[in-house]
Predict the 3D structure of the following.
Amino acid sequence: MAISPKFLEEIRTRVTLSERVGRSVKLVRRGREQIGLCPFHNEKSPSFTVSDEKNFYHCFGCGAHGDVIGYVMKVDGLTFPEAVEALAKEAGLDVPISTPEDRERHKKRAGLIDVVDAAARVFEKFLWATEGNAALHYLRERGLTDATIREFRLGFARPGNTLKTSLRSSDVTENLLLEAGLVRQSEDGRNTYDFFRDRVIFPICDSRSRVIAFGGRTLGNGEPKYLNSPDTPLFDKRSTLYSLHRARKSARDLERSIVTEGYMDVISLYQAGFTETVAPLGTAVTDHHLLELWRVCDEPILCFDGDKAGMSATIRAAERALPLLKPEKSLRFVRLPYDEDPDSLVKKEGPKAVEVLIEKAMPLSDIIWSMETRDRDFNTPERIAGLEKRLEDRALSVADRKVQYQYKEFFRNKLREMKDSISSIQRSGNRYKKPFEFRGYNRGERSRTTSMANFSRGRRSPRILKKRLEQVLLAVIINHPGLLNGFAEDIASVNVLDEMLDNLRQEILKLHAEVVELDAERLKNHLIDAGNREILQSVLDPEVYVHAGFARVDASEENVRAGFLEVLSRQLEPARRADLEDARQEFIKAPTEENWERFGKLKSDVPIECGLHNGAGETTTQAD
């Protein structure tokens, strides 16, 4: 559903950002802005600012940045449409439905939700009636209390077509039941019959706690043992996580979520106090699942069964996650005893045993290392070279450059440790003593196609050079907005001196926070509609491209990335030097070991020289 910029602006006008943030963050006014402790990372000194005048928040500690819609998305773990809907309700607005097709789709969806919820009530009724005794006994034998059974709205589907009979009315047609996935067409195409028959029923809810589908477990020896609703306009099993609506608040408060394999794992752990638990629905963990999980916490913990199938699921999840990693967004993995699952373990050993295993959860990097090294001998140079190549391929599959670099470093160190521990290689002489290295981006290498060495032809003032750098930075992200996915926080940290360019930067970051897949055309149109046509033209002027060909729309991906990293690094330099000076002053005031280490780390991050090279090969120092 398309949501007009005008309606989004109405939400931002009606819902005051500081009031919304102030519900969970204590804010203190400082001039025109308010400041408090950042809700997105642990800090002792407040670096989180909120500006109602500019309608955005920004953390100078972690780089978090956005408007009221982006804030609700991040804090509550909602998608953009969900956040808009929640804020619209709070503001007393109805989300506009723009086209007749949208109105018809909305009406149809509402009808499906009504009939699925009616089915859930029927299943619940059947469970607590006489005919549900066997199903209720099964659930109690599995250790569930009546309170838990009611909390999860568990039910029972009787044999035959009793659900169809119970729901059919003048308003509930055969077609509606079919579209909701509640009945199935017979092979001859003449009749329909109940999709779920003689099964324990597990209702599946959306983010707003509305029942959208069901899972059913057979009570006998029938196959399949577990059966999920078919995909419908309400339900897509590859993008839905069981009990996410119930787990979201706990996951956010505890800063962790637990991912298991099945319904009973979720319910048993919930009953034991692990209310942050979810599960995929009969599928492997998908990209969509990972993105949903990362909306509620930074490092979801996968707790799959301790059998061969569980290990296979762990490997698939690790491989799926690797390309999607972002700074601070990863996975951890619990290794359960062989042939145990979370449900059986919590019943046998209790919550404390589960908590101990969760606390020992392995990071994704260790899982990848284990995948490549288990059950293998590395007693020859060739085998170690093969391992190095596989690990390099794993690292290069990470799209985010910062995370990719860290994985290269991690694997390089692990390989060095392995090499030092293998006596046969130690005795083979100097030939294999060279440290293992990965080929990657080298800050010292600058190709003619991406370098900005000719940026300053003749002598120009530092302020003019600074403004040109700002134009180049904006030009490259406008033409290649995909860069925002990994570097939005860095771009938000740049000190842009030109007021109009800074306003353009803020508008870009605001749209990025609202739109999942932002393309260059949409970004440019938005900036023009927001009244930035003149400044946009100056940024995309051919004169800018003369100095930075990598910013062009048709530049190669390699040149775009290398040039972007160079100009971003230069733009961040003043802030790094300011941090260094702050650290120096802190050490003078309090010469502690901690302050000395902080100063040393920052000093190593700031190069001795950082300037723009003019045509004569001289260096002109940047000025703020």
Notes: The chain has 27 helices and 19 strands. Residues 376-432 form one domain. Residues 428-451, 453-459, 606-624 have pLDDT under 50 and may be disordered. The two ends are 44 Å apart (CA to CA).
